[in-house]
Amino acid sequence: MSSDLRALQQRFFALVTAPNAAADPSLVSWLAFEREEHARARAQVYRDAFAVRTFDCLRDDFPNLASLVGASFESLVGDYIARHPSSHPSLRHLGARLAAFAAEHVLSQRWPWLGELAALEWARVEAFDATDVVPLAHGDLARIEIAEWPAHVFAVGPSVRVLTLRFPVERAWRALEDGLPAPEIAAARTEIIVWRRQLSVCHRVMAPREAKALRRAQLGSSFAEVCECFAEEVSVDDAAASALATVAQWIADGVLARDAGDL
Amino acid sequence: MLGRPSIGHGIGLRTAHYARLLEEGTGEIDWFEIVSENFFEPGGRPWAVLERVRRDAPVVAHGVSLGIGDTDPLDAKYLASLRALFARIEPAWVSDHLCWGALGGARTHDLLPLPHTEEALVHVAARVAEVQERLGRRIVLENVSSYVTFRASTMPEWEFVSEVARRADCGILLDVNNVYVNAKNHGFDAKRYIDEIAHERVAQIHLAGHSDRGSYLFDTHVGPVPDAVWELYRRAVRCCGAVPTLVEWDDDVPALDLVAAEACRARAIEREELAHVQ
């Protein structure tokens, strides 16, 4: 281990990332400047770059969360980075834990659904970055023999996320997206599907039984098992019809992927 | 002497140009440089553009997260991702930066300067050897722009960069704009840097713009290449000969034609200077 080099990097790392720049009392003792204020000004270049880089990254990934909390977003970001510094080679992953962090942050006392709004925005980021697949087409269904339908497994696209939330944050997201103030929203269990259709990220609220069916499909359940999600309120025949209509909707939306068995 | 593919003058592959490249191809641009980390996840529009570009022109992979000067252990998963990417896109060569950026597993996502010491030389050279072993290929390292230097340094930057390349048997990506920026920020002679760098190790050149912030220059890669950087480039060509050269323009990215014109200017300057030499 390079001890002097390590020690220098520890000192410089603290200078760049720590909230209080004045913590290091004598920069000229190790940075090559004659005057302390010059050393401090040049160190600030790195501090500013670090702050701007992390702030911009999270604001781009959580635009409506940033709109909601306004000027407080900067302190939210600072608190978050101090707790969860970036550990991945790519900044794309920086916001992975912001939803859980925001849910516990002091700002959530004003907006109890703060973490869930962040979860929705992060799901959209993940959907955007998900691997490409060929979407299943309606015509592909003709290749499934009638006798094979009950055991057939539909492949859900890798961009699909199913969120179960305590608040209908989709309403707040929509208002903020349209540049409007977020409405006051009361607790109400909400299921949301997030997915990518070609290059556009989409989301919509789902009925609980559709969410249950989609989760089963994600786990690799057969069509018959997916149908069971619809059978709790209607007859078996009606359940199959509802399941078929739902699968048709998923295909139209680009939620299902063509896998090797469909080719 | 380092093998130096003669692939001409290129530009960075940037999202602002994706639509044009998909529709019209690469035109007269000799080659493209990608940011390696942006292509770790296969798929999406970036890959569609990359595959289109690769049909017409060589591609070079330029990373930003290797952390060759970090004192943390090398990131095996990251290196595996690089290796997989290189196997897929077959870049003409691969590069990253002679810097550090992470500590204790926490990343700054910045290109932080190293002290120019014997200890840092030994440390970096050993890591380059290990990286080259794991990647199965030689790498090229870029001199970075900086805003501070360290009292611990015992040699000028050009000597440090050259010695890393010699000891580790790797290439140098000579960023002429960074030389100019650092010369202004730290008060050394940029021409001497160009004259003294290990010319036989220079595998690629970067050109770019910067911003004047009063008491220092900031490496922003914005705007056309300034005249002073073109002048240094002429000197670099006289010293090194024909070197694959890339124009970086990463902020307020203009139309593809404008960036391509900068690459064409680099090509013309190289011809002029080499004609004088001959």
**How does the helix and strand content of chain A classify structurally?**
mainly alpha
Q: Could you tell me which chain pair has the largest interface and how many residues each side has?
A: A-B, 39 and 44 residues
Rg calc of chain A = 25 Å
> Which class best fits the helix and strand makeup of chain B?
alpha/beta
Distance between the termini of chain A: 54 Å
Side by side, the strands of the main sheet of chain B go 1-2-3-4-7-8-9-12
> Main beta sheet of chain A: strand number and arrangement?
3 strands, antiparallel
Query: What sort of overall outline of chain B do the alpha carbons produce when their principal axes are compared?
Result: globular
Order of helices and strands of chain A: HHHHHHEEHEEHHHE
Determine the strand fraction of chain B and express it as a percent band.
Answer: 15-25%
Oligomer: heterodimer
Let me know the average pLDDT of chain B.
Answer: 95
Calculate Rg of chain B over CA atoms.
18 Å
Descriptive overview:
The complex is a heterodimer of chains A (263) and B (278). Chain A is mainly alpha-helical and 263 residues long. Helix content of chain A is 48%, strand content 9%. Chain A has helices at 3-17, 36-61, 63-69, 72-83, 98-104, 114-129, 169-177, 208-218, 223-228, 236-253; strands at residues 155-156, 161-165, 190-197, 200-206, 256-257. In chain A, strands 2-3-4 form a three-stranded antiparallel sheet. Chain A has a two-stranded antiparallel sheet with strand order 1-5. The model of chain A has no long low-confidence stretch (mean pLDDT 92). Chain B is of the alpha/beta class and 278 residues long. Chain B is globular, with a radius of gyration of 18 Å.
Please provide a brief summary of the model.
Chain A is mainly alpha-helical.
Primary descriptors:
heterodimer; A: 263 residues; mainly alpha; three-stranded antiparallel β-sheet; 5 strands; elongated; B: 278 residues; alpha/beta; eight-stranded parallel beta barrel; two-stranded antiparallel sheet; 42% helix; 18% strand; globular
